[in-house]
């Protein structure tokens, strides 16, 4: 039986129409003990996801019968399964569209097996360490956040966060290793009326980093995904 520390043995669905890439991904996943199921179209991908109920989906966007975004939308109607997109599309707009649709990570082709497996491990760890009720305590570095009491401390001393900073930090920290877009952060933290106010996020993130990072100019935990958003790394 698998554990978050040793995620071998998970069921993973690969939705990719190029046989060579499918084989490459299957071999990489199989080498770590995962069971791999395959699909080569949007329709087949949704059928396999519904019947197999995989622990993770690796998804290409350019499929013969439609866009992989359709698979993400279909999955998100009933599942929170982690989705890693593999795509030759390297434009920021394509990445943002996939992440805003509900993908958890985005890897541009060509990619190496090592990077793919690191992303797979991170998503499995993030997803399967979460508990249904959520953790009452988030800890990283010398920072501790008590979600029940809505308090934060660093190195044992109270950490004075503004309400916006607290909401921003807890939203990111509750989804470790996941890319969160500017739009997702604006909608969650500021509300739907602030869709274009990306400067809000930048300003508050800079202030937040000064409070929680040892070196705010080279952050370890609150990482920038250039042009897209942020990723929290525990």
UniProtKB/TrEMBL annotation:
Residue span, OmpR/PhoB-type domain: 135-234
Keywords assigned: Cytoplasm, DNA-binding, Phosphoprotein, Transcription, Transcription regulation, Two-component regulatory system
GO cellular component, one term: cytosol
Residues in coiled coil: none
Pfam families given in the database record: Response_reg, Trans_reg_C
Positions carrying 4-aspartylphosphate: 60
Start-end of DNA-binding region: 135-234
GO biological process, one term: positive regulation of DNA-templated transcription
Keyword Hydrolase assigned: no
All residue ranges annotated as the Response regulatory domain in the record: 11-124
Molecular function, one GO term: cis-regulatory region sequence-specific DNA binding
Protein name: Response regulator
Source organism of the structure: Simplicispira hankyongi
